[in-house]
Amino acid sequence: MIVWLNGTHGAGKTTTSALVQRLIPGSRVFDAEKVGETLMDITPGLPETDNFQHWPPWRPLVVETARRVLDYTGGTLVVPMTVLVEEYWREISSGLARHAVPVRHFVLHAHQDTLRGRIANDTVTGPDSPFRLAYLEPYFEAARTWLHDEAEVVDTTHLTPAQAALRITEALKG
What we know:
The protein is an alpha/beta fold. It has helices at 13-23, 33-40, 58-73, 86-98, 112-120, 130-134, 136-145, 161-173, and strands spanning 2-6, 27-29, 76-80, 103-109, 152-155.
């Protein structure tokens, strides 16, 4: 099974995914961003883009990597990855379904002011990352038009990552 944690930057995906992994026996965290980083390392480079998700190979490679890891290890993969383009989500989710891999899709949501505050105070990527800030509006547009309808929404505005992880694991049991 895959537990996909979606949401924009600052929602708590990375921190929460590590905590969810600890609460689910036999689970592992699969950072699909590493697939994008591998594609970015190809030389000469692939066609110019502002987001590796736009490269057509990224989506099927995520599906193939996830399914092969699950075939090898069993258990659960926790995938913290922002996907805001509906077509890309459909490609990934239908690809996993073709391989009979069940997916529980969660969106970690927070109010815009909360997200801006988290991004402003980020000690890992640095304060006020233009890259992270640029994804706020696309996230809220996706949330309004399709994303929240396709997932179980966990509002992290007033939750700690540990509380969000507990909500997710409780939802998985129910």
